Amino acid sequence: MPRRRPRLAIRARLTALGLAQVFASTAAGVALTVVTPTAFRLSGSGQISGLAQTSMIVGASVLTFPIARLAQKSGRGTALAVAFALAAGGAGGTIGAVSIESWPLFLVALFLVGGGTVGGLATRFAAADIVEKPASVPLAISLILWAGTIGALLGPNLVGQMSAASHLGPYQLLLILYMLAIAASFAGANGKRPHIAFAAKRRVRLSEIPMLLRKHRSATQGLIITLVSHAAMIALMGMAPVHLSHLQTSAGVVGLIMSAHLVAMYVLSPVFGMLARWRGAGVVGVAGLILSGVSAVILALASTNTPWLFPVGLTLLGFAWSMGIVAGSALVSGKIPEPERGVFQGLTDLGMNVSGGVFSVLAGLVMAALSYEALAWTIAAIVLVVLGGFLRPPRTRGF
């Protein structure tokens, strides 16, 4: 019985974190669906409407490191609660902005909504902290990621129903979801962190980061795997609807293709977590990068010659992203003492937000200047270069 109680407590905390992820991912789905049209309605400008998503990305990027620092100082539960509280405050701000029809206030509020992105990403690290054994970290991360499936599917579908009642409806829902995420994350993340070695409490200086990257090779590998997997997915997924519209694909078919991709991003994450536990996170991460490269090649070929392959490539890209995020997150949450562990986790989330924003812009430029085929071949080449670094013999390995 004494042994069973800690296990039940861990399961309860993981369940609470899973609920937090459901609330956060549902909120993200709502926000991504509704903010751009709202910004256009408030401003009447296509350029201003494009800043809506950018404002959330910038907010997430700016808030990532302060939230990571707070997690080291005051605990993961407090940090998650603050991140979601900022998002809730931003959601409240959007309600006010829409009510008075102020697009500048709307963009400022969306900056704070970016805190929800930070909290959603950090939830998987909170799960990694509370499991009893390091070997269980990949599975814990993958289960939290899998919980995001519900939100990815539910969020966009709730927008229509909430908008029918009132144009404020989606933003009122956003506020409620982030408030629920505060409670669930605080309940799940507070408590002991069984398998983590704590060093003396001190702050890691920015000048120490290059040394830490060299010192913790596996964590650095996890950081690179996560960033490359995420950047490749953002670039190819973001431009896919534009490419499909150029091919005069019906809106219904585009929706089905994108839904298949979104489901692939989450649905098999527990399988990849078990594979990482069995074969090692490094092996699964590299396999994910290989699949990213294969997906990019398929999308490049499908963009001109065999369009029926396009859904296959985009679905495989979703699986590749899931493998990379699960394995990469597990590697940066391995046997690393604090505060170095928190630094790697903060760098990972910051890198995801920044690389996502940068590659989204670059993908648009390549698409406009050349084609989707050129974009896909470019991503395949980037992935190949990174894989070459990983697969070099140990004596000459550059990572």
From TrEMBL:
**Which SUPFAM superfamilies did the record assign?**
MFS general substrate transporter (SSF103473)
Membrane topology per the entry is: Multi-pass membrane protein
A GO molecular function for this record? Answer: transmembrane transporter activity
The answer to whether the entry has keyword Signal is yes
Give the signal peptide range: 1-27
Instruction: Tell me where in or outside the cell this protein is found.
Output: Cell membrane
The alphabetical list of record keywords is: Membrane, Signal, Transmembrane, Transmembrane helix
Q: One Pfam annotation, family name?
A: MFS_1
Major localization class: membrane
Using the record's annotation, list all stretches that form the Major facilitator superfamily (MFS) profile domain. Answer: 215-399
For this record, the Gene Ontology CC terms, alphabetical, are: plasma membrane
At the top level of its lineage, which domain of life is listed?
Answer: Bacteria
TM segments? Answer: 49-68, 80-100, 106-127, 139-159, 171-189, 223-244, 250-268, 280-302, 308-332, 344-368, 374-391
**InterPro entries in the record, alphabetically?**
MFS (IPR011701), MFS_dom (IPR020846), MFS_trans_sf (IPR036259)
State the PANTHER family in the record.
MAJOR FACILITATOR SUPERFAMILY PROTEIN, MFS PERMEASE
Can you say what this protein is called?
A: MFS transporter
Q: Can you name the source organism? A: Mycetocola tolaasinivorans
